[in-house]
Amino acid sequence: MIMAHDPEKITELYVRAKDVLGPEGLHSLRSAKQRFDAFNTALGLAIKAMDGPEHVTDDQIWGA
C-alpha cells in the first residue's frame, strides 16, 4: 500500500509524524512492534484515503 508512492514523500510523512507525535511518541511506537504495525496500517489507510502521503493531515497522523 505505502510502497506505491514516492519514497521521498513517505519519508516526509514520517518526519511530520515525528513533529506531530514528538520524538518520545514516535519512539514509543517503534519500541513496540504491534503498536508500530498498527500505526503503519493506519497511516497506509490514510495515504490511500487522501490519495497520497502529502495529503495526510496532522489529525490523521495523531489518530493513527
Question: Biggest sheet, in brief?
Answer: none
Q: pLDDT under 50 segments (min length 5)?
A: none
Rounded to the nearest angstrom, the distance between the terminal CA atoms is: 16 Å
- Over all CA atoms, what is the radius of gyration? 11 Å
Question: Class by helix and strand content?
Answer: mainly alpha
Number of DSSP-assigned strands = 0
Spatial shape: globular
Q: Give the helix level as a range of percent.
A: over 70%
Per DSSP, the total helix count is 3
Question: How much beta, percentage-wise?
Answer: under 5%
* Mean pLDDT value: 92
Order of helices and strands: HHH
Into how many domains do the coordinates divide? 1
Question: What does it look like?
Answer:
The chain is mostly helical and 64 residues long. The chain is built from 3 helices and no strands. It has one domain. Helices cover 75% and strands 0% of the residues. The radius of gyration is 11 Å and the shape is globular. The model has no long low-confidence stretch (mean pLDDT 92).
